Amino acid sequence: MNMDKPLRRVAIFAMLLFFGLMAQVNYMQGSQAEALRTDSKNSRQYADVFNAPRGQIIAGGQVLVSSKETGKDNPKYGRTYKDGMIYSPVTGYFNGGASKVEMAYNSLLGGKDKRITQQRWFDTFIGKKAEGANVELALDPRAQQVAYAQLKKTSRRSGAAVIDVKTGAIVVLASFPSFDPNEVAPQTGLKGGKRLEQLDKQAGVIKPLIDNAMSQTFPPGSTFKTVTAAIAMEQNGLSSSSTVNTGTLILPGSNKALPNSHDTGNCGSRAPLRGAFAESCNTTFAEMAMKMGIEKLNQGSSKFGFNRPVQIEPNLRAAESDVPVEVRNPETGKMEPTGQDGTARSGIGQENVRATPLQMAMVAAAVANNGKIMKPYLVEKVRAKDQSELYNAEPKQFSQAMKGDTADQLADMMRAVVTEGTARNLAQFGIAGKTGTAEQGLGNPNARWFSGFAPVQNPRYAFAVVTEGTGSGGENAGPIAGAIMRAVVSK
Amino acid sequence: MSSIGDQIRAQLPYQRRNAASLALLIFAMVLTLSAFAEVGLARDGSIPAGLFGYGGGLAVLAFAAYFVQAKFAPYADPLLLPLAVALNGVGLAMIYRLDLDTSADKRAALLEGTAVKDAADAPSQLMWTFVGIGLFVAAVLIMRDTDKTDAPLSFTPKTAQRYTYLIGLSAIILLLLPIVPGIGRQINGARVWISIGGFSVQPGEFAKLLLVVFFAGYLVNKRQAMSLIGKKIGPFSLPRARDLGPIMVIWIFCLGVLFVQKDLGTALLYFGLFVSMLYIATQRVSWVLIGVGLLAVGIFIATLLPFMGHVNQRIDIWQNPKPYFDGGCLLESGKVVPVNPDTDIYKQEAAAGSGFPGFSACAKLGGEYSDSAQLMKGLFALGQGGVLGTGLGQGQPWQTPLSFSDFIFDSLGEELGLTGLMALLLIYALIVQRGMKTAIAARDPFLKLFAGGVSFVLALQVFVIVGGVTKLIPLTGLTTPFLSQGGSSLMANWILIAILARMSHDARKPAPQAIQDEGMTQIVSMR
């Protein structure tokens, strides 16, 4: 009896076993690969971000953020932030999670974006990892440095934003206090994670992870009069030379007087609007607000960008600036409409009106740019490692906040603030704008503002600066804005 | 009527294919050296020092083996040695690569609970490769052709037939050694190791070969009776009780392995081996059906016994691994609840100071603890690799547990991709097919059974471990022949290749010239 036949059958069976294995490997690595890679239990997808160099973040030809090999297995690459304190409001941090531009351009920086892989399909085919692309910011590094140094001197919360009125490019976005992203970069490991937690939980109003230029709102105070004036001029047919009440105003709800900072000069009893604006008479703008009503003030301010978060980049929005028509009463928990008194105070940027410096810079930009606001953006260009362009910012109109004529008159009124109004101390800086000093409630320091544009004639940049402390916007925020704008304009 | 074996023998050219073998061997070496070069280039941008130490060392060994084979077994199958060298080389390169990634703290973590040096370790793997190929050389030198039994130190594969029962006994002793207190060691949950003087050996690897010898010897004697005598009921012919005895003994023995060592894979391997050899010997399908039926009954009984709940769990994890990730607990109701670090009960147990919080948490719930992290992380590695792999040295194999032993196939899958794994499976398939061809070409029934058995055991072992780590079948721990880190496995598999090479030489060499006309029995050419 011969064993060849069963041997052949067993050989065939052995081959079937191998076919089974081959089929399974094909199933796993072919059709299941994507599902396995993105499985929620798969920590590889999270660790993976540390195993390839991320793209650089560049501004004005300077490399602000770059990746370097750590020489370790995990993370294989660290992240270095040049002058992290200065640029963190824009670059954000990266430690697996991310914020700001690091987050908004995560897929391009990390090399996972389809725009890269499609361009590099051959690399993908041969299994070469797609390299992260470099992101170029619109930021002006010199002005940013000046801004941070100036803000740091205030030793309390402060922020500054400067935008190019023609394009919407953000050239300065500085904040104090800030944090150093190097402290939480991947190479810091667990220590970095703990530091991030600590930064996140920092006590009081000072939260370094939240920048004071576009992510934090403050009461805008008198700088908001620009908005109130613009709406009133468009709706009630006022012009800068129309005569308006500047004297005392008794608020109807409480029968209390709304004070002016001074009752001399233009703020005596009646004056042209231009004068009332230059000397920042509260009563004039409070009355305007009451006349139009809170709804109109709300709708008008929306054209400037209030009442919704402003989208800066994909996945990156500024905090929402608000002119609320109703607010939740903290005691009853019910929504209550803003009354007459509240409307009057809203008109001068108090009550529940809040704005980010970026928002006030957008208001100034509307004035400086014939009523037109361009969509603000941070990233100018994205280039792959081979220098091919993957993204180029296209200036887009954000809104037409007011008529060109209104804007021209407001621009003139802003110039008057510096030549003959509350900010005469700023004449040397070659800027125009509006001062603002907002009370932030009992026991809190004032929010001191200056927002405007430069150069005075043919304005190119709009800005807003907020600082906290005693005193007024003109005296404190103004010179800081002046110093920043000198750096911006002299470029 | 001429059998297939006669046809194959008749068609064999009786050529020495040493040139072909050498060319293939050079190709296998180029493959290995390229693997080393790629590891170095990917990681440091330069050719690694290991290329010369490891690749060069392997090359010297492989060529020595080649020359011994060419001189003493010139008609040996030309594919066996180069294929084995290719596998061993790829495995060595992978372990070298894993070594580079095994940082100090990772190494410490691996050592935790494993007691012996268990982390990837290329120098020791090279040493075992040296020993393994040395054994190949020795085996080819010592073993003689079947027709030269008169030579001094005479030992042919057939010699083993004389000591069938002695060999069977030694196989069982080897298998039982790990449960002897003192020398037995439990590593990664399986008690299949013995440790003598600092060296750890898996006696099961050698027992496997001895069992093949025993089965072959036993079945050659009994096969006539077992295949011919028996009652016929319908299409099935039932065996006599006395013929059924041995298979029952083996069955009980395998179940013993399953219960004591809790090792379903090994039990499956031995039982599959026995059933396949029984079939080869008797050519009767009824034996296969009886065998498969017995195995199914055995596993069914195992799943019913309360203390064998982990077999159930293994099967459960295989079908649905996700709930067990990071620790799951199978309750008696059949429900799976997590007992991982995120759960309250885990935290309670951890706070109470339990060394194994997940385990004790599960015990408190009255269930069976298990963790599918190994399996799933292995699958994640496969997913990472995709079709073309990340490239050697560019993946993250340190994320895979036991990436150098049980899960080395997944590690290779990550870096070589589907393409690489298909190539590796093809190499295995070719070795198995070459072995089967040797079996068919062999003239002696004992040698036929023996060659068929060792070839099939190789195929089955690859199937069980690779099928396990790719989720084709429930995961059980076995070594991946020639790839896994480990000396016992390498030595046993090189001996296996040596035996096949020697037998293929025996089967393929020209028949003795007929001195006189033998009439009808004369060997004639079929062409």
Features:
heterodimer, A: 491 residues, alpha+beta, Beta-lactamase, five-stranded antiparallel β-sheet, 37% helix, B: mainly alpha, 19 helices, globular
Compile the SSE list and pairings.
The complex is a heterodimer of chains A (491) and B (527).
Chain A: H1 4-31, H2 33-37, H3 44-47, E1 57-59, E2 62-69, E3 77-81, H4 84-91, H5 100-104, H6 106-109, H7 114-119, H8 121-125, E4 134-137, H9 141-152, E5 158-164, E6 170-176, H10 189-200, H11 225-236, E7 243-245, E8 249-250, E9 257-258, E10 270-272, H12 273-278, H13 282-302, E11 311-313, E12 316-317, E13 326-328, E14 335-337, H14 340-347, H15 357-368, E15 372-374, E16 379-383, E17 389-392, E18 397-400, H16 404-419, E19 432-438, E20 446-454, E21 461-469, H17 473-489
Parallel strand pairs in A: 1-4
Antiparallel strand pairs in A: 1-2, 2-3, 4-16, 5-6, 5-21, 7-10, 8-9, 11-12, 13-14, 15-18, 16-17, 19-20, 20-21
Helix pairs in contact in A: 9-17, 11-13, 13-14
Chain B: H1 4-11, H2 18-43, H3 50-72, H4 80-101, H5 104-111, H6 122-142, H7 159-162, H8 164-176, E1 184-187, E2 190-196, E3 199-201, H9 203-228, E4 231-233, E5 236-238, H10 241-260, H11 264-282, H12 285-304, H13 309-319, E6 328-330, E7 336-338, H14 344-351, H15 357-365, E8 368-370, H16 373-385, H17 408-441, H18 445-469, H19 487-508
Antiparallel strand pairs in B: 1-2, 2-3, 4-5, 6-7, 6-8
Helix pairs in contact in B: 2-3, 2-4, 3-4, 3-6, 4-6, 4-17, 4-19, 6-19, 8-9, 9-11, 9-18, 9-19, 10-11, 10-12, 11-12, 11-18, 12-13, 14-15, 16-17, 17-18, 17-19, 18-19
